[in-house]
Amino acid sequence: MRFRLTPRETSFYDMFAASADNIVTGSKLLMELLGAESSARAEIAERMRAAEHAGDDATHAIFHQLNSSFITPFDREDIYKLASSLDDIMDYMEEAVDLVVLYEIEQLPKGIEQQIEVLARAADLTAEAMPHLRTMENLTEYWIEVNRLENQADQIHRKLLAYLFNGKYDAMDVMKLKQVVDVLEEAADAFEHVANTVETIAVKES
Q1: Do the beta carbons of residue 83 and residue 59 sit within 8 Å?
Q2: pTM above 0.70, yes or no
Q3: Mind telling me which PANTHER family this protein's record contains (predicted)?
Q4: Which of the residues 31, 80, 87, 177 could staple to 59 if both were Cys, CB 3.0 to 4.6 A apart?
Q5: 1 has pLDDT over 60
C-alpha cells in the first residue's frame, strides 16, 4: 500500500459493502425461487423487486457521494465502474425472477439450480471482499475464485442450452427458458466485471 499525505473520503467503503450485502439478499431470493411453488413466486418477485430498488438507492448514494467528494479513496472512474457493475448484478437477478413470474413458467429446467448456486457463491465472496477495499489486502483469492466461478457458469450455461434444444420442449417454452438462463449468465458475467474492477483498483493502489 503506497503512503498517502492527503485524507480520503472513507464512506465509499461502507456503501460498497452495503451494496454487496444487498446482492447476497438477492441471491438468497433466487435460491428460494428454486424450491417455491409457482403460486409463491409472485411474492418472491415482490421481495426481489424491493431488493433491486434498495440496490438502486445504494448505487445512487455512491454516485452522489462521488460527485460531492473532492478527494476519493481511489480513481473516480473505478468507483463509478465498481458501483455500476454491482448494480448490474442485482438488475440481472431481479430480471430473471421477474421473467419466471411473467412467463408463468411452471417447471424450471434441470441444471438451473447449478447456475443459481454459482451466483450465490459469487455473491458471498463479493460481500466478503468489499470490506478489504479499505486496506487492499487479501483480495487476490477473491478475484481468482470469482473468475473461476464465471468459467464454471459458462459451462453450466452451455449445458443448459443444449438441454433446452434437445427437442423435449416446444419452441415457445424454449424461448422463455432460454431468456431466463441467459439473464442468469449475464449476472455471472457481472460478478466477473466486479472482480476485475477490484483487481484493477488493487493494482493501481499497490
Answers
A1: yes
A2: yes
A3: UPF0111 PROTEIN YKAA
A4: 87
A5: no
